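Ticket #4471: structure export looks truncated?
Reporter: QA, pipeline team
Priority: medium

Steps to reproduce: submit the single chain below to the structure queue and open the exported record.
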Amino acid sequence: MIQSLLIANRGEIACRIIRTAREMGIRTVAVYSDADAKALHVRQADEAVHIGPSPANESYLVGEKIIAAAKQTGAEAIHPGYGFLSENADFAQAVQDAGLIWVGPNPDSIRAMGLKDAAKKLMQDAGVPVTPGYMGDDQSPERLAKEADAIGYPVLIKAVAGGGGKGMRKVDAAADFGEMLQSCRREAKASFGNDEVLLEKWITSPRHIEVQVFGDSHGNVVHLFERDCSLQRRHQKVIEEAPAPGMDAATREELCCAAIRAAKAVDYVGAGTIEFIADASEGLKADRIWFMEMNTRLQVEHPVTEEITGVDLVEWQLRVAGGEELPLKQDEIEIDGWAIEARLYAEDPATGFLPSVGRLERFHIPVEYRIDTGVEEGATVSPFYDPMIAKVITWAPTRDESIDDLKRALDGTAIWPVKSNAGFLYRLLEDDEFLDGEMTTGLIASQGDALLPEKEPSREMLQTAALHLQREYFGLKAEALTGFRMNAPSRLSVLVATEAGPVDVPIPDDWIDDIWSSSATPTSALVSAKGMAFAIGQHSPRGSGTASAAGGAILSPMPGKVIAVDVAEGDAVTAGQRLLVLEAMKMEHALTAPFDGTVAELNASEGGQVQVEAVLAVIEKAAE
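Actual output as written to the record:
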C-alpha cells in the first residue's frame, strides 16, 4: 500500500484525491503556485510545496518541479488528477524513471491512445467499432477533399492530436472544405504543435456515451457501466449522468464489452474512459455507436459512476498503483439508482460565458448534496486556471428524482459577486428534450438564448430584498412598516435600486414574516433563487454611491486592459451601443450601454489596467 502521495494538481480534484487518501491513511503532499498559496487544497494536505509563479506553464505544467517536490517531501507516488500533466506520457515516464509510483496507466498506453488516428486504427484491429471516416497518411488537401466526398457531407475535420473541442470543424458542403481545412490546421498547429487531421462522418443526432473501464497489473479489466455526457457547450461537457437514458440491457452489454476490448488492446492499467459517439436518430442501438477516443486518466465526471456503483475510483487507483488486484470482479459490480452531475463554473452567461474572477464573498450550496469543490467562501477565483469551482452531484432511485434533487441544490445555491452558470444549469434541467432523455450534443446550441437566466430579479426577489432592507437598516418591526388607508388593504412599498434603475416594490402582507434566501450587507440585500443571485440596494434619492452603481454603472467583469474607448463624458448613448473594449484572459469583451442616456462618468482610458468590478463608466438614464 502506498504510504505517501503527492498530488500534481490543484483545486477540486486535488481536494477530492486528498479526501480519499486521508480515509486510507495515506500522507498527502500538495503543490501550489503563487496564486494558490492560500488555496483549500494546500490547507487540506499534510504538507505543501511551492512550485512557481501563477501561470500553469511555470508551475503545474513543469514536471521537473513536481518530481523534485516529491523527492523533497519523501512522497512515494504521484497522482496527476485530470488536466495538466495527467495524459503526458513523457511525464509519466519521468516519474517512473525517478523511482516513484505513477498513479495512472503505463506511458506506452498513454502514447497509444494519444493520437486519434493511430488509436482508431488500433481499435479497428481490436474489433471495436469506429466512426466511418479517413485516417490515412496522405494529408494533401486534394486527397482529404476526395475522401470527404466519398464519406458524404456533412463531415467533421478533427486534429489527430486534438482535445477539448479544439482543432474541430464541421463542413456542410464541398465548397467550404478547403477553407475549413486550413482553419482547422492553423488551430491544431497553434494548440498541439501538430496540424495533421482525420475525417469523420458527421452524426446528425449525436449522443456522447462513455464507458468507465479499470484495469490492474494482474491482467484484470472491468467496466463500471456507462455515462451520458451529451449536454455540451462548445464541445465542453456541462451536465453528465449515469446510466445513460434509453440504454437497454443488450446495447449496454455490447457497448461495455467493446470498451473492455479497447482497454485490453493497450494493456491498460488504472482508471480510463472509452468515449463513443452514438447516432440516436432511432434510439440507442449497438450498431449505431462508434469509438471516438480514450481518456487515459480519471474523468471530471467520475462521481456519477461512483454514485451508481458504490465504488471509490480514487481508492481503486491508489490500490492498483500499489500493485493490488481490482477489489471487485465484473459480476460484483451493479447499477443502483441514478446520478447526475452539474459543473458549476465561475462564468457569466450574460457575457457569452466569459470567466468571472474575484473574491467569493458568498459561496453557498446546500450541504445535503455531494459537492466536490476546491474553493470556499472568502476564496478568490483566479484568472490563471479553469473556471470550474464545484461539481454538484445528486443520486436518487430514479432519474426524475435525481433531476429534482439537482434542481433543489441549484435553487439553494448563492454565489456573489463572482458570476456563475448556476442559473443556466437550472434552466437546462427544465428543458423538455433533457427531461425526456432525448438530448443530443447540439441541444444547448440549438436553444440559444432561451437557456440564459433572467438578467433582472423577479418580483418576488425584489419584494424579499425590499422587506429585508427595511428590517435590517431601519430596525423597524414588520407591523410598523405597514401603511394605512381608509377602506383599503394595508401595504408596504419600498424604493430599491436595480440595474435598470429605481423600482417601487409593493410588499404583500403575507410576506412580512416570510423572508427566504436572503442575507443583508451594509449596502444591499443578496437574494438568490434558481441559481440566480442579485444584490439589491436601498435607493438613494441623491443618486450617489451604491444606488448609482446599481443603476447605470459599467463594471469591469474581470481584471484586464482597456484597449478601446469609444465615448467621452457628456456623450449621448443608446442602449446596446459599444462604450469600450476590455482585453482579459486572452479575449476581447465589448462593454455596452444598458439603456439610452448620457455618459455621466468615464473612469477608463485606452491602455489602462483595471481590476474586477471597477466602475469604468456611469450612464445616466435619459428622461422618459
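Status: closed, not a bug. The export was complete when the record was re-opened. Leaving a note from the reviewer for reference: The chain has 17 helices and 36 strands.
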